[in-house]
Amino acid sequence: MDELVIEAGRTERHYWRDLWRYRELFYFLAWRDILVRYKQTVVGIAWAVIRPVLTMLVFTFVFGRLAKMDDGAVPYPILVFAGLLSWQFFATALMESSNSLIVNASMISKVYFPRLIVPASSVIVTFVDFLISVGIMAVLMVYYQFVPTWKIVFVPGFVALVFFAAMGAGLWFGALNVRFRDFRYVVPFFVQLGFYVSPVGYVSTKVPEHLRLLYSLNPMVGVIDGFRWAILGGEHQLNRPALAISVVVVLLLFSSGVWFFRRVERTFADVI
């Protein structure tokens, strides 16, 4: 007969080991969210195609035609979509992870498992949309007869930066959302503001030079520039200072997010 040992602090010491032990729960949550995401919808998974394509068309018209930001170095729709790839992954992952604890409140209040699994699984779900967007990008490249360079091998590194940035911010907002429910209104505003202060529809070189250092404190600046450098190559040089700042900010955001989440995690079941 197995013995059940109840020991103070045991859960804390074995937390990271428990993440691996509960990996099946992680798979279940991710798969469940994927099914729920596209079940009982009018257009189903096609929504993951329609949204970025419509955004690209609007940006091409507004920034490319009206604002005259098309420098002709590469087809402007490809330029915009290269920025959308990373931004929409970040924005969607942040929105989903920040709300994930509230969505799974009934499970959190009833059983023990490492709560970190919940926001992590929601970020993985958004990766499906990202892969669909990569397919759209490939179609655009074929249409415009644009061939990427060898630099495309660096794309997974920038994808990892987006993942850790979204995860770090999601852990902060998700934990705060449990205690302060008005943060569910803060996150959409934060995402909308970030959309306009990130070089999605334009290149960061359009920003006045004396403001670029301050502008680069937005971690998505270096990441989006890096995506364009890796995918488009050519005239798009890697902005090393902005990328270095992005890496530092993302690492700080992720590490502090994990620290804060772990600090308040034990109270979730009481206040959620």
Q: If you had to describe this structure to a student in words, what would you say it looks like?
A:
The chain is 71% helix and 0% strand. About 2% of the residues have low confidence. It has 13 helices and no strands. The protein has one domain. Helix 5 runs parallel beside helix 8, helix 5 runs antiparallel to helix 9 and helix 11 crosses helix 12. The protein is mainly alpha-helical. It is globular, with a radius of gyration of 20 Å. 36% of the residues are buried.
Secondary structure layout plus pairing:
Elements: H1 10-13, H2 15-21, H3 23-38, H4 47-66, H5 76-103, H6 105-108, H7 117-143, H8 155-179, H9 183-196, H10 212-215, H11 219-232, H12 240-264, H13 268-271
Helix pairs in contact: 3-7, 4-5, 4-7, 5-7, 5-8, 5-9, 5-11, 8-11, 8-12, 11-12
Largest sheet: none
Taken as a percent bin, the fraction of beta residues is under 5%
Per DSSP E runs of 2 or more residues, the count of β-strands stands at 0
Whole-number tally of structural domains: 1
Helix/strand structural class:
mainly alpha
Instruction: Give the terminus-to-terminus CA distance.
Output: 36 Å
The helix-strand sequence is HHHHHHHHHHHHH
Overall pLDDT score: 83
The DSSP helix count reads 13
- For the CA atoms, what is the radius of gyration? 20 Å
Q: Given the C-alpha coordinates, what overall shape results?
A: globular
Low-confidence stretches: 4-9
Question: What level of helicity do the residues show?
Answer: over 70%
